[in-house]
Give the backbone structure.
Amino acid sequence: MSVVPRLAPRSESVPSAGPTPGLRIRPAVAADAAWLADVSRVSFAPHLHDYLTSAQPGAGRFWEVVLAYPASFPGRCCLVAEADDGDRLGFVDLTLVDPGLAHLSYVCVVRPARGRGVARALLRAYLDRHPDVRAVRLDVFADNAPARALYDRLGFTTESTSTWWVADVTPDWSASSAAARLDGLHAARAWLHTYGFGELTVAIGDTVVRLGRPSARVLRCFEPAALRQPAVVGAVLREFPEIDRVLVMAEGDDAPPSAVGELRAVNRSLRMSAPEIRTRLELT
């Protein structure tokens, strides 16, 4: 899918106290899509790419849609920081989820620009644009020490910890005889072809289960209870034999019950929040 890029709006200068002279912040536009996808992809360890929609080959095409049609993504705001010469240094992506509360999906800074206050400038610019936002929440990988250090300085505290569990599966692992209906199958295939990820639902009797495809080889169960329903997973494997792993994220450190295979931990993430982020930004 190709979207004609819009012209970039004029950047707005952001006052800087030394580390970031000349830094400008502007809204992201469709012309930034490929760059946004590349920057976010390289910010994650390669062994996690199969589990992340933002690391898929079509992520740039999805960004094009997000940026070209903002009315279809209400409450979402993506800002880009750039230097005097136009070089893009980083970006921030937040979505208003409740009155006064925004969820921070990404804050990425290119490696040569790290340590220069770019992330803080991006967050300040977002809050300037959204004066009603007082609190921000986010999810961060537990082993991402630089990001956690930044969030600690900004007053974020940990609310909960989740473990990412994976089980290996094969197409012949469960040839279930249960009659299953895959809703949205045509859309799921189209999304996977275009963006490299997608969603679908499986219905068996009165049970309807929503599932994700963060990549071609991974099936995500949004609820741990789905791991106790091998017929649901088996129905998807019959349609998508390329899937070789099932992923679920569960709060805490204990593996949930599973009927689809032995689970192994591949990642841990923290849900953090800063209820008065404006105050902390003013102090840093």
Q: What stands out?
A: The first helix runs from residue 33 to 42. Residues 164-268 form one domain.
